[in-house]
Amino acid sequence: MIAPLAALLRYHELKTQGTAAALTRREEARLLQSLTLDIQRRYSNLSKRFEASAVVPLERGICTGCYMRQPADLKEIGEDIHECQHCGRLLYDPDVAFELSVG
Ligand SMILES: [Zn+2]
Fold first, then answer.
1. Contact at 8 Å (CB) between 93 and 57?
2. CA 9 → CA 21, 38, 71, 93, distances in Å?
3. 95: buried, middle or exposed (CB in 10 Å: 19+, 13-18, 0-12)?
4. What digits encode the pLDDT tens for the residues 34-93?
5. How far is the CA of 33 from the centre of ligand 1 (A)?
6. In whole angstroms, how far apart are CA 29 and each of 5, 17, 21?
7. Measured in angstroms, how far is the CA atom of residue 86 from the centroid of ligand 1?
């Protein structure tokens, strides 16, 4: 199993690249396996609404989708996937995402 955040980012990347062929059914199934049904459902709704910006980095406590500040306790999100309190986009820590992508 891969980390949920890594799976979400990879899934989002493949979905938004516009190359459907890049995401094989097998890989899609593998990635979705790492995501809770709740996240899958949220992602599905958000991607219809926001497309490429359905999943965005949280920069200095600010959602980079709607540029609204998040509650102070959301500074250290680690590998968690959070939801913006204002627009509902899925938020992640870009430094953690980078570490995950490097492996
Ligand atoms: Zn937002």
1. yes
2. 17, 16, 23, 11
3. exposed
4. 999 999 999 999 999 999 999 999 999 999 999 999 988 776 788 999 999 999 999 999
5. 26
6. 15, 18, 14
7. 5
24 within 8 A of 64, measured Cβ to Cβ: no
Cα of 84 from ligand 1 centre, angstroms: 5
Model's pTM, two decimal places? 0.88
Residues 43 and 35: beta-carbon distance below 8 Å:
yes
Alpha-carbon distance 80 to 82, whole Å?
6
d(CA 99, ligand 1 centre) in Å: 23
DSSP string across 19-81: -GGGS-HHHHHHHHHTS-HHHHHHHHHHHHHHGGGSEEEEETTEETTT-PBPPGGGS--TT--
